[in-house]
Specification:
The complex is a heterodimer of chains A (152) and B (83). By secondary structure, chain A is an alpha+beta fold. In chain A, 34% of the residues lie in helices and 32% in strands. Classes of the chains: A alpha+beta (152), B alpha+beta (83). The interface between A and B is medium-sized, with 27 and 17 residues.
């Protein structure tokens, strides 16, 4: 299991290769990459800064991954989330899930992202021509996370 | 007790963290939040009951009825926006 919070960029292919290295039992690898979009609101963003709660961030990601492992049969998981200043088109987050079968891998990957977006202590601040502003949490993210409550 | 403030909340109250003894009559996170709001000014606005806020005790997310102890690390922050 790999859980990292870091400023540096990551290479999804390398992380996937490392996850599967030496294994012949993996049948499915599902990965998600979240990127900085230039256009989300009124004005294009020039940069985005990610703040986090050192100590809690890693714990929260660990708890989310452990819950995914309880719900689905998974062989390995990697989660990498960047912090600090990012620019449009930069990678923000990576989730990779390896399993014997694709159903578990797809569901676990989506679950991890839905929970990360509502439970992991990161906050985004965007800079546009109008200045700086903090991104607001979205109801749609809460609803997405709420879908998983009660699922087996 | 160490109390931490993050993101827009930190900017509004102008403080990153502080050491605090548990105030008289405060037994849980909800009580602490109300006590902080009672400081007035930016604090009363930032900690107003109508504001969406999350809290953690010892780096674990908790609800307002969570108890607090003198040796705890408490954190208040806006709803998270990672990912």
């Amino acid at each position: 299991m790999l859980i990292k919070v870091q400023q540096e960029d990551f290479q999804p292919d390398a992380v996937i290769a490392d996850l599967c290295e030496g294994r012949t039992d993996v049948g499915a690898v599902v990965s998600f990459v979240g990127l900085v979009r230039e256009i989300g609101g009124d004005k294009p963003i020039r940069s985005m800064t990610l703040e986090h709660y050192p100590g809690m961030t890693e714990k929260a990601l660990q708890a989310i991954v452990e819950e995914a492992q309880q719900r689905w049969t998974l062989q390995d998981i990697a989660v990498i989330h960047r912090i600090g200043e990012l620019r449009p088109a930069d990678r923000i987050v990576l989730v990779v899930v390896a399993s014997a079968h694709r159903g578990d891998a797809f569901h676990a990957c989506e679950f991890i992202m839905d929970y990360l977006k509502t439970r992991a202590p990161f906050w985004k601040k965007e800079v546009t021509a109008d200045g700086e502003h903090w991104v607001e949490a979205r109801d749609s993210d809460d609803q997405a996370a709420g879908r998983w409550t009660g699922d087996e | 007790m160490k109390v931490l403030y993050f993101a827009s909340l930190r900017e509004q109250v102008g403080m990153e963290s502080e050491q605090l003894a548990i105030p008289d009559g405060v037994a849980d996170i909800g009580g602490l939040r109300a006590w902080l709001a009672a400081r007035g000014g930016d604090w009363s606005e930032a900690f107003d009951a109508s504001r969406a806020m999350m809290c953690a005790v010892n780096q674990v997310m908790v609800k307002p009825d969570a108890a607090i102890a003198e040796t705890d690390e408490v954190a208040f922050f806006p709803p998270v926006t990672g990912g």
